[in-house]
Amino acid sequence: MSSIAKKRPREGIGSPGVRGGFDRSDQIWTAPLSRCHYGLNGSIIALGHSNGSVTMWKPTSTAPLVKMLTHHGPVSALSFHSTGHLMATAGTDWKIKIWDLRKFEVLQSLPGHAKTLDFSQKGLLATSSSSFIQILGDFLGSQNFSCYVTHSIAKGYQIQKVLFRPYEDVLGLGRSIGWSLILIPGSGEPNFDSWVANPFETPKQRREKEVRSLLDKLPPETIMLDPTKNGNLRPPTRRREKPSKEERQSIDGSRSCRCQEQRFN
């Protein structure tokens, strides 16, 4: 999947982006790329464009699976929620939006500018612009994010990237010079699944995990936007039973009675 999306060095205003496929072919987009982010399952890639749209692609698609107009300007950052149903985007129009990917609708629009976004395992959203960091959280479960923690670094340093550390209450900050860590209580998942991520796995378990992941890997043509629908069966259709002989006779008799009544009327 590392060769699905690339960014061509800007040769000028309006330079297009490039998509490389498994057949070594490239496809040129008319809208320049501004941001690139993988989905949670690693099979879908979301691209933010300078015209304010976000497109989602899979390896075998020649057209975007989804195309959304998210902002009235270039998309500066985007990130996916751990559940896969929410997406956060930020644009140069000074708005941070929370999207419902099941209905592709805006759930909340917040004022502010963000250069980088990242969701934690527990659903906290980290936003950063210049030397200021803000952590948003949905504490009531109503998908209404509010301010949780704010943090700022020394002036003159620019924050380039924020990223939560899995299974720990730690947020990593990539600055213009070096990096640092800050504590964000309640951001990491306290209970880990050894079948998904085992921090105490042995070298033998790690090798077996790699083999198992290769065996369970889906073919590119079976990748879907919603991975939960993959492998589901179509519900059985109810067959219409033929009426019995007695039912047909009663239906014919009722029809003949109606015809006679209409004639007399």
UniProtKB/TrEMBL annotation:
Keywords: Nucleus, Repeat, WD repeat. WD repeats lie at residues 68-109. Residues 147-227 form the BING4 C-terminal domain. GO terms for biological process: maturation of SSU-rRNA from tricistronic rRNA transcript (SSU-rRNA, 5.8S rRNA, LSU-rRNA). Pfam families: BING4CT (PF08149), WD40 (PF00400). It is found in: Nucleus, Nucleolus. One of its GO terms (cellular component) is small-subunit processome. Residues 221-265 are annotated as: Disordered. It comes from the Eukaryota. InterPro entries: BING4_C_dom (IPR012952), WD40/YVTN_repeat-like_dom_sf (IPR015943), WD40_repeat_CS (IPR019775), WD40_repeat_dom_sf (IPR036322), WD40_rpt (IPR001680), WDR46/Utp7 (IPR040315). PANTHER family: WD REPEAT-CONTAINING PROTEIN 46, WD-REPEAT PROTEIN BING4. This is BING4 C-terminal domain-containing protein. The lineage of its organism: Eukaryota, Viridiplantae, Streptophyta, Embryophyta, Tracheophyta.
